[in-house]
Amino acid sequence: MPPSRLLILLAGLALILGLIIWLIDSLTRLSWQLYAYPLLSQALLVLIVALLAVLVGALIYYLFVVPRTQQRRKQARRSPQVPAAKTEAAEETLKAVRQQVSQIQDEVARQELLMRSREIEQTLSRGNLQIVVFGTGSAGKTSLVNALIGRMAGKVGAAMGTTEVGETYALKLKGLNRKILIIDTPGILEAGVAGTEREQLARQLATEADLLLFVLDNDLRQSEYDPLQTLAEIGKRSLIILNKADLYPDSDRDVILAQLRGRVRGLVAPADVIATAANPAAIVLEGETVQPDPNIMPLIRRMVAVLRAEGEDLIADNILLQSQRLGEKARYLIDAQRRRQAEKIVDRFQWISAGVIAVTPLPVVDLLATAAINAQMVVEIGRLYGCEINLERGRELALSLGKTLASLGIVKGVLTLVATALEFSLGGLLVGRAIQGVSAAYLTRIAGKSFIEYFRHDQDWGDGGMTEVVQRQFQLNRKDEFVRAFVQEAITRVVKPLNLDREPSDTDDQPLLPEVQLPLELKAKLDADLEEWNRS
C-alpha cells in the first residue's frame, strides 16, 4: 500500500476511535438527560450509530474498493483491443468454413481444415504478435534472432542455413503489452529437394506473420524480390534488414541501402529498410581479438515504433487474412470434389448419348436429337452444385448450347476429327453409325464440361458468354493424346459391343433403343424427341 494511503488509514482509524470515545461519552450524558424520554434517546442512538457506520463504510470504500476499480480501468485502457469489425469478419469467415467442412468427403482434408480453424480461433483469443524472420540461409537470420532475444536461439556460423524447421522464441519489448513471438524460419533458395521443402515451410510461416523481417546480406536479387512481392501483395507488413552491415565501408553501405529502397519502392517504405550487424566480425585491437556487440538498435527502435502504431491492426489483418485463406482452401476442396463428381456424370451421359445415336437411324449427328439426354445431364450437374432446375429448363439450356456448337462449326469439326481417329485406329472405311455415335459422345462431353463451368460460376457464362466457354472446352478436348485415348475408349464401349465397325446385314440382331439403360422419364422424353425428329 502506498505511504499516502497508509497515513490516511491511520488518520481514519484515529478519527473513528475518537468518534467512538465521543459517542460513548455522549451517550452516557444523553442517557441521563433523556432518562425521562426513552423513545427519543433510542432514536438519537440509532442516528448516531448509522452515521458512524456510513463513515466507516466510506473509509473502507475509499481505501480498498476505489484503488481496485482504478486499477481495472487502467488495465482496460492499457489492454490492447483488436479492431472489432475485423474480428467479427474473421469469426464469420471461420463459422462459414465450419459449415463448408461438412460438405468435404475427404476425412484427412476435413480434419486438417477443422484443426486449422481452431488454431486461428486460439490465435484470435491469445492475441500474440508473431514476427517471422525470413530470408536466404546465409543472410544471418538466426544470428539476428540471437541478438534480438539476447541468448542463443539456434546454431550459428554455417555457410548455409541451419534452421530446418520453424523455431519460436518469446521476446518482450518495453512499451508493448502483448507477448511477442519471434519465429526463425528455414532459408529460402537452398539446393535440392530438402531445400525446396524447407523453403515451402518458410513461405507458409511468412504468410502467417503479423510482421515480417526480411533479412538480406547484400543488394536484393530477383529470386528474393519475387517472394517479397508475393507477400506484400497479400498484405504482409515487412521490414527489410540489411544484415552484416559491418562488412561494408560506410559509403558502400549507404549505396546498398539506397539501392534497396529504390528496388522495394511501392512494397516497403524507405524508413523500413534498416541496416544491422547481428553478429559482427571480430576485430584485433592492440594485439587482442575483440568481439564487438551486435548493432541492432535501429531495428529494435523501428520494430517498437511499428508495433506500437500498427500492432493491433496487424494482428486483426493477419487473423482476417488467415481465416479468408482457410475459407478459400475449403471452397477449393469442395470445388475439386464437385468437379470430380460432375465429370463422372458427364462420362456416364456421353456414353449414353453415343449408344442412343448409334442404334437410332438419324441422317446426321445433331445434339438437338439428344436434347433430352443432355437435359437430364444438366439437371444432375446443377443439383450437384446446389442449383435445383427442372427438366424443361435443362432442355432449354441443352438446346441453346447445341445450337452454339453447330453455329461455331464444332459439330462438323468433331465429325471430321472422330472419323479420322476411328479410321486410323480400326483401319478401313467405317459405317456412319460408328462415326455418329462416337461424335455424339464427344459433343456431349464438350457440352457437359461447358455446363460444369457454368454452374461453378453460379450459373454465369462469364464476360465472353456461352460461345467463349464452349470454344475453350473444345480446344482443351481436341489435343492429340486426349483424342487417341477417347477414341480407344469409345471403341471398347460403343463400336465393338454394337458391331459398328462393319455394315449391318439383314440377319444381324441389332441392339434396340430399349436396351440402352436410361431413366424412364428421360427415355420417354427422348422417344418424343425422336418422333418429332422423324416427322420433321
Automatic annotation (TrEMBL):
SUPFAM superfamilies: P-loop containing nucleoside triphosphate hydrolases. GO terms for biological process: tRNA methylation; tRNA wobble uridine modification. This is GTP-binding protein. Keywords: Coiled coil, Membrane, Transmembrane, Transmembrane helix. It is a multi-pass membrane protein. It is found in: Membrane. Signal peptide: none annotated. It comes from the Bacteria. GO terms for cellular component: cytosol; membrane. Residues 87-114 form a coiled coil. It comes from Stenomitos frigidus ULC18. Residues 130-244 form the G domain. GO terms for molecular function: GTP binding. The chain crosses the membrane at residues 7-24, 44-64. Its main location: membrane.
